[in-house]
Design brief:
Number of domains of chain B: 1
Distance between the termini of chain B: 45 Å
Radius of gyration of chain A: 20 Å
CATH topology of chain A: Rossmann fold
Order of helices and strands of chain A: EEEHEEHEHHHHEHEHEEHH
Distance between the termini of chain A: 49 Å
Strand content of chain A: 15-25%
CATH superfamily of chain A: P-loop containing nucleotide triphosphate hydrolases
Number of helices of chain A: 10
Shape of chain B: globular
Number of helices of chain B: 12
CATH class of chain A: Alpha Beta
Largest interface: A-B, 35 and 22 residues
Strand order of the largest sheet of chain B: 1-2
Number of domains of chain A: 1
Order of helices and strands of chain B: HHHHEHHHHHEHHH
Structural class of chain A: alpha/beta
Number of strands of chain B: 2
Oligomer: heterodimer
Shape of chain A: globular
Largest sheet of chain B: 2 strands, antiparallel
Chain lengths: 270, 300
Amino acid sequence: MLELTHASVEFAAAGGPRVRAVDDVSLTIPAGTFVVVIGTNGSGKSTLLGSIAGTVRLTGGSIRLAGHEITAWTQHARAALIGRVFQDPRAGTAGSLTVLENLAVAACRGRPAGLGWATTAALRAEAAARLARIVPGLEARLDQPIGSLSGGQRQIVTLVMATWHRPELLLLDEHTAALDPAAADRVVQATARLIREERLTALMVTHSLAQAASLGDRLILIHRGRVELDVDGPAKRRLTADDLAARFDRLRRDDQLDDAAAQTLAEAYV
Amino acid sequence: MITLLSTWTFGIALALVALGVYVSYKLFSFPDITTDGSFTLGAVVAAVLLTKGVDPFVATAAGMGAGAAAGSVTAILHAFLGVERLLSGILVSTALASVSLVSLGRSNVPLSGTTTLFDKAEAACGPAFIRLGMEEAVAGEAARLALVVVFAAGAIMALYLFFLTQLGTAMRAGGDTPSMARALGRNTGLMTVAGLALANSLTAASGALVAQYQGFTDVQMGIGMVVWGMASVFLGAALVGPVRLGAALIAAAAGSVTFRLLVASALRAGLDPDWLKAATAVVVLAALVAPRFLARRQAT
């Protein structure tokens, strides 16, 4: 279970006022829930994900995961509990290492890396089986540098790496955004299948309203660092991409009105 | 014959610098200026201990330890104190110039009268080479060459095997893509410390060997070593193209020997030694640019 209690991230923009990228967010996500997170550009959804992964420090509140208070944990310490797939496949894999060597590093996630051989016959067999289960044919490329794979294939390997040891939480940060539509579709299908089969707790940030409507057990819409919409169950299942698009339009209109009001006030009083 | 053997011996002794630069620059993407300082430091520590009568193996190992410590300081400055990579190396290398001078007591110390690793190698292998029909002087030089070959081959083998272990593979991953390594639970700061310690211990070993080979230690002997190391790595890469880890390590060492042979040939052909450093820079530039230029020509 993931619990965020009054989580806030505040930082000073260069030369500007302090900005609350995540503003007093409290969430409880039970184990085994697949949550899709959406939001406008700059809404704070990636900062929220970063604060859970440990790349961004909370300036207020706390995070508990699987019974551990992880607020003060470093990113690499949190990796014992969290699997992560980045937006850019190059950020989640080491391009100069082979596919098998990348998987070998993942096989050591959350445990000390020792002086045993990284790529054993047992690891090779397991890696081949896992890859073949998701994308048949990929297992034949275990000994090739991962940099020689396409973006979609590389992201599939990253997904296998992130889930090699069952994570308490899987974080997917717009992990199909850098892919072409066909590859993105394959990766989304593979992701959804893996999460369903392994009953993983997952938080997926996406810009695709179609993905947001069709995937996951629960949907959270973040706007201006706050949870604007949080639906699950039948309400989530009824949501369509059009509903979400209409919601986005309303938020944008409200933002414009807010900006116009602020402008008027500034002109009247300053 | 002796001159040729000597050129090879020098080139292979300096191959350890190339291996160190391969680890820091190619595996960790860290342009490590500490190399200049740790080369001298290795030579100084070995010289100080040799003149006190310490066993040359122990003296060389102590030099390597000092180099590892220097590399660790550079990595700590960068990874934990946020100092920029180049600057952290420059700071440590600058400080090492004083450390080496104070440790040595003066700018140059001869090692005559001490027992060096090369004396031991000559005593161990010389008679065998003479029995094979070599003249005494040639046999002595061949024994010295054999010693550095053993060192370089041992270093290549040890690096290759280490980088195939779980820890070594994780270190390579951390050097290649730190975000990936951190997301998989690796402390990339500590890995950088370990990587630079390893790289500079190799460089210091080279310094200790070169000092023992040439029979003296000079506090300025490390100047330009980082460029030598890079020249060797780039030259090796230009010779063999993109290859896997084991071949890349051998190529870096081969690059050092090739570079030494080029330098020796240039000097023999009449190059003013004052222009040696400039010639080195030109070779580095050529080794960097030539593969790209050739690839572009092949593409068009």
